[in-house]
Amino acid sequence: MELRQLQYFIKVARKQHMTQAAEELHVAQSAVSRQIRQLEEELGVQLFVQKGRNLQLTSAGRLFLSRTEDILNDLDRAVIEIQEFLDPEAGEIRIGFPHSVSMSILPSFISCFRQDHPNVRFRLRQGTYTSLIRDVMDGVIDLAIISPCPESHEHVKGEVMLTEELFAVLPPSHPLAESVSIRLEQLREEPFVLFGEQYSLRPIVMNACQQAGFVPRIEFEGDETDTIRGLVAAGMGVSLLPELALRYSTLIEPAVVKIMDPKVTRTVGVIRRKGEKLPQVTDIFRQFLLEFKPNRAD
Fold first, then answer.
1. Predicted local confidence at residue 257, as pLDDT
2. Would you call 63 helix, strand, or coil by DSSP?
3. Partners of 255 in the beta sheet?
4. What is the pTM of this model?
5. How far is CA 183 from each of CA 141, 179, 257, rounded to the nearest angstrom?
6. Angle value at C-alpha 25, between 23 and 30, nearest 5 degrees
7. What is the pLDDT of residues 97-109, one digit of tens each?
8. CA–CA dist 207, 211 (Å, integer)
9. pLDDT digits (tens, 9 = 90+) for 148-171
């Protein structure tokens, strides 16, 4: 059994298509088919069945996929650890992040870190709260910046980097747009623009509204901070967004107002797998994240 066979098998399993897998691997389809056939012959089982134009894993294929992914992840980590042993300043950091962090503070993190560690490489992966935790657990990445930072979890360890305030985001023409601060209860009759249910900010906003004595009427949902800011600025509703997500400018700007009652906050933290030693350069970056203090918006 060859490493190439395992790599080809995983690619075909993920793409569910022989031609697409071959294109991404930059090899001929016949080469991929031959390696998969040889692998099946060596294992004595069928790994794929044809389903329409796609390939579907058999029960044996699904079992073999989970094991081979673990093997290749361990192999990747072994290569990284050897590279770091030879030169800790030339390793690779595998880190995940949500959209709001990528637009606000992640560039600052990487830029500042690379000033003292110019040869370190970053492998970045964007995701939602749930997917980032899963990627850390599965070994796809070693760290993830996440919000809220989990206080307790069976498989990952969370460390709080910062706690930030959420602000009311209003259309510029809203009667409360010029206010210094408001009570959240003042928005009870307004339509809300919120992230979808798969995003961690949504329950924070829902809980804050319940504290204020009402259930928000959700008019629109978005998948990105820019979408929510744009919809609010266009007069489609109101929202609550964290401080760091409001640091940069967009073409159309909503009004941002402080909420005095209840005060709404969220934690931002970094997570890693429990009970597992991080590669040296990754652990250096983890400590850097915990000590780094991004500039707040004016």
1. 97
2. helix
3. 170
4. 0.68
5. 40, 11, 10
6. 70
7. 987 776 667 888 8
8. 6
9. 999 889 999 999 999 999 999 999
